[in-house]
Design a protein that fits this description.
Elements (H helix, E strand, L loop, with lengths): L2 E3 L6 H13 L4 E5 L4 H6 L7 H16 L3 E6 L12 H18 L3 E6 L5 H18 L7 E3 L11
Parallel strand pairs: 1-2, 2-3, 3-4, 4-5
Length: 158
């Protein structure tokens, strides 16, 4: 699945051109993420989208119009590390809900791929909560699908 980091686009036209080329190559699904350098690029004015959510709010209809059928999103069972603090899990879920809403409103299929988690209980609890919240939002359309990521060999001292 091609990855679209929102942080890499200086102008909307860059995204439109890339998506057109991808669709011409047969691509029908994308993974939309914020990008690890999002904060720096927003601060320097070299990014037109305020993260994956901003890209989807502005461009979900355009993605669909150009031939994209499915969007994959990152789900963070332990909260996105960039959101910090104890509220990171709740803030991550709210952002995921907003991204899913943008996709569903544009009639895009949605897949949520869980990000790295070393805590199975946390992962299962997040999955249950996310399924309930997001599939309620998708009522009347295709259910939101979930793909669970498992960590490979990773130093645990992080």
């Amino acid at each position: 699945i091609p990855h679209l980091p929102a942080s890499r686009f200086r102008a909307r036209g860059e995204l439109h051109e890339l998506v057109a080329r991808l669709v011409d190559s047969g691509v029908q699904q994308l993974l939309v993420v914020g990008g690890n350098d999002l904060r720096e690029r927003l601060a320097s004015g070299t990014c037109v989208y305020a993260g994956a959510g901003g890209l989807l709010q502005q461009e979900a209809d355009e993605l669909r119009r150009r031939g994209i059928r499915r969007v994959a999103l990152a789900g963070h069972p332990e909260g996105h590390p960039g959101l910090g603090g104890r509220s990171a899990e709740e803030a991550s879920m709210r952002l995921l809900e907003e991204k899913v809403d943008s996709c569903l409103q544009a009639h895009l299929e949605v897949v949520v791929a869980s990000q790295l988690s070393f805590d199975a209980r946390c992962l299962v609890a997040w999955l249950h909560r996310a399924r309930c919240l997001l599939n309620d939002r998708a009522a009347g359309s295709t259910n939101v699908q979930f793909h669970i990521g498992f960590p490979g060999p990773t130093p645990f001292g992080r």
